[in-house]
Amino acid sequence: MQTPEQNRSFTQLIEFEIEPHQQPALISALSVQTERLAQGFSGFLSASILASDDGRRVLNYLQWQTREAGEAAFQSFESGEQDFWQLIRAHRAKTVTFGSFQVMSSIERSHDNALHCNLVN
User: Angle 23-40/67-79 helices, nearest 10 degrees?
Assistant: First the structure.
């Protein structure tokens, strides 16, 4: 039996391609924006900002309890005090790729060092 769609968490992935000298400033700006989203919107689960070794890419990973929570937060991100498009221009992103995903399976290590797998289908 399939799990209803509303019971699946929702993940947004945003990949930025930039010049290496822009990477630290973009990471800093995304950290501030991500913290604002986490504090200001219910449904936030987790976020990570990842930097490529070559300095040319940054990946912003945001996970939400529901698609609706993630989309509401992103709409705010687009029009907030430092809107998303301004952030892209300020850090001269060459390309920005957006992806939205529903979590179908996850695995994590617990405090007692056991592995726990969650299949959501």
Answer: 120
Contact 7, 118 (CB under 8 A): no
For residue 90, CA distances in Å to 12, 82, 93 come to 22, 10, 8
Which of the four pLDDT bands, split at 50, 70 and 90, describes residue 34? confident
DSSP states along 52-80 = -TTSSEEEEEEEESSHHHHHHHHHHHHHS
- Give me the mean pLDDT over the 44-49 stretch: 93
> For residues 14 and 97, is the Cβ–Cβ distance under 8 A?
yes
Residue 44 has φ and ψ, to the nearest 5°, of -70, 130
- pLDDT for 89-112, tens place per residue? 889 999 999 888 888 888 888 888
Measured distance CA(117)–CA(69) in Å, rounded: 24
Q: Are 38 and 62 in contact (CB under 8 A)?
A: no
Enumerate the domain spans of the chain: 8-119
CATH of domain 8-119: 3.30.70.100
- Which of helix, strand or coil describes residue 20? helix
